[in-house]
Amino acid sequence: MEEVDKILIHALKQVGTDLSEETDSVKKFSSELLVEAVVRCIRVIDPGLGSALPTSLPPGMSARFRVGMSLAQACQDIGYKGEIGYQTFLYSNEPEIRSLLMFLVEKLPRESAEVSDQPTGKSVVLQKAIAAAIKAQLAVPWLPLNCRLPLHGETQSPGAIHSFHAQPLSLPRCSKGKKQLKEVEDYQRDILPPVTAQLCHHASVVASILEQHTAELSAAQEWDNEWNSQGLLSRLTPQEYRSRKLSRLRKRIEEQLRSAALPSAESAFGGPRSTSDLSELLQAFRGSAPSDQVLTKGSHFIHTQKFTFTQQAPAGSSPPLPSGPQSESDIQLRQQEEQLSLQQQFQQLCSDVDQLAADMKHMRVTNTQVLDELKQRELGNSEKEVKMQVKKKTIDLLPDSENNQLKLQALVEASAKRVVNLAAQWEKHRAPLIDEHRRLKEICSNQDLESSRKLSEIKSLHDKIRVSTEEAKKKEEIYKQLVTELENLPQDVSRSAYTQRILEIVSNIKKQKEEITKILSDTKELQKEINSLTGKLDRTFAVTDELVFKDAKKDESVRKSYKYLAALHENCSQLIQTIEDTGTILREIRDLEEQIETENGSKTVANLERILDDYKAIRQENSALAAKVREG
């Protein structure tokens, strides 16, 4: 039982029960400790059922009875079939405690059992504490401010709530295989402030770090997905694939900016130039000279209009400066007249530009139509010229038609022979070319199959590398935990002692099995011997009875011997029955002694005393409540 108790205590410690080093047996479990252990196990087995159960007994006796009943009901709900009630927790004995704890430990999930077998390092303990605190806070229902009691001040304080406000962070980067510049390293080491000093509000530190790490993680995952789906098919290195993608992106941006920066007809002639900013942005993107040093593309009319406007500006439509002093009203009147004249000129120019733009559109349409018609006529003329040449040659051949027909027939026959000869020569060249084509096609298909196979192998290798990397990380964490656990273990206990102890336990179990087997075999032998002797005795008595009974009819002394034989047989039967009854009584005595020991171990007298004390406490509570009711 000592080994069983140690296993139970170890499992209870793993689920969070606060057990001292002195508690090395189930016999030393108090009611408070038993309640805590049972509640911890129920919370691991069924969190929804165990979240409503307290881990300690209240001071009042009536409340203790209610807690005991609720714990008994919870144990029955999770499948405990033994006898259980409030007395199991308030007036418990060792066998009941052991059976209940063994059931709960066996009922624990396998994941928690595996975790309990693994060592617990500092990081794992911290993570468990954080998870427990978060679960406890999530289990507490939210209450409005006017309904909160001082009890809820710690978990639902308004001062601990902050909005999720993230800000960009500057973090040092360390790329594998590439050495950073010395200036960058000096900046990151000496000038770059820490993360907590880069933000204006301390409450946004966690949000900013979470945002930064989430962005980096999502970018890494997107790159992995893109590389596995498209990058491997391109058969390029990651650097080449990135550079090609960057060049394509730059070309697309340049095309979009160029299409947005080209001036339309209306903006080129009339309205203000709204795309100048895009032109400047395009020039800045190209990294070339400013926009005023680049010759923009345009028609001859646009350049003429610009030249005309630029020449007219200094030519002097503006009035000469007055030679003498004038009044302020005259100056304003003159300015208004100039403004009106300029507006009229501007409107006239806008109307002229609109008219010219419409004329240009009409002329462009007309020009395209004329060009199309001209192309069609040129095609028709070329066809007619060919026909005309054919007819002209035919007319030239008409005067000497017979000789020309003979010549034409000879030419046709020669052409037919030449075609047949060429066909034969083509067949000679065609057969090896077709064979070569088929061979090259088969080689190409084989190469495609080989490349696809190698590509699938590369994908599988990437998956294996990723899985191996994850397993290596997990094993590294387990190694760190094992090292931490090894450092925390006492150094005076060696593994050989535990191994020797296990071997001793195994040897004792083997010896007990051998003794039990020996006792069972001896019992079977004795039973066989008893059965054989009983049968032999019955057969001997039957034969003797028959022989003596025959002689008893003739001789009186033999008749007395027959009576004595019958009495002897009856007395022997009674003696055997008495021996069997004695064995049965001895077994019952041993059973009663074991029951007495069990009852003594269940602390019946002490439990009765505790029950009497609790009964008195309940009566006092009832009397106090009755007195309060009378006073009220």
Task: Explain what this protein looks like in three dimensions.
It is a single chain. The protein is mainly α and 632 residues long. Among the domains are: 2-121, Orthogonal Bundle (Actin-binding Protein, T-fimbrin, domain 1); 182-235, no CATH class; 332-388; 400-487; 519-601, no CATH class. 77% of the residues lie in helices and 0% in strands. The protein contains 20 helices and no strands. The protein has helices at residues 2-14, 31-45, 47-50, 61-77, 86-90, 94-107, 110-117, 122-139, 182-191, 195-198, 205-234, 238-261, 265-269, 276-286, 300-315, 328-397, 401-488, 495-552, 556-601, 604-631. Helix 1 crosses helix 6, helix 2 runs parallel beside helix 4 and helix 12 packs antiparallel against helix 14. The radius of gyration is 55 Å and the shape is elongated. It starts with a helix and ends with a helix. The model is unreliable at 112-120, 264-275 and 287-325 (pLDDT under 50).
Short description:
By secondary structure, this protein is mainly alpha-helical. Helices cover 77% and strands 0% of the residues.
